[in-house]
């Protein structure tokens, strides 16, 4: 099962630069990164609503109301992320955009794990994680320097 999940993660990662590039082209078509992001989210939201409806249905529960405020901010962060990629792809290219985003993701992920932020199980930083983060930063340097 773990190999299926790892393959799923790899495919999801491959989908991101594809999505970034498609959304950058949409921006060219509609003339605005905000409008392109809005259209992208509307299409994605419709797809997810249809899947949710047929998969489990949508049932509002008391837990929704009692949830901490920050659980509702994922969409805002997603919107920021999509707009950022639409702005960055035409200016710095797909490889540099993904490289810097990956670096930000790995740094934030290690800190979230280490401190157990946002309800994530604590997984302390160790030497091997620091080496991995360092190698990613070195890789980003090479991707950016030798475009």
TrEMBL record:
GO CC terms of this entry: plasma membrane
Recorded coiled-coil stretches: none
Record InterPro entries: YdcZ
TM helices/strands, residue ranges: 34-57, 69-92, 98-120, 127-144
Keywords tagged on the record: Membrane, Transmembrane, Transmembrane helix
Protein name, per record: EamA-like transporter family protein
């Amino acid at each position: 099962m773990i190999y299926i999940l790892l393959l799923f993660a790899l495919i999801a990662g491959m989908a991101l630069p594809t999505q970034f590039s498609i959304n950058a082209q949409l921006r060219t078509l509609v003339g605005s990164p905000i409008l392109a992001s809005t259209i992208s989210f509307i299409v994605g939201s419709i797809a997810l609503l249809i899947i949710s409806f047929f998969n489990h249905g949508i049932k509002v529960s008391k837990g929704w109301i009692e949830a901490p405020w920050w659980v509702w901010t994922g969409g805002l962060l997603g919107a920021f992320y999509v707009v950022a990629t639409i702005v960055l792809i035409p200016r710095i290219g797909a490889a540099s955009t993904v490289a810097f985003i990956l670096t930000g993701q790995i740094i934030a992920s290690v800190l979230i794990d280490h401190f157990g932020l946002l309800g994530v199980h604590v997984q302390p930083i160790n030497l091997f994680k620091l080496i991995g983060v360092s190698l990613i930063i070195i890789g980003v340097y090479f991707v950016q320097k030798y475009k």
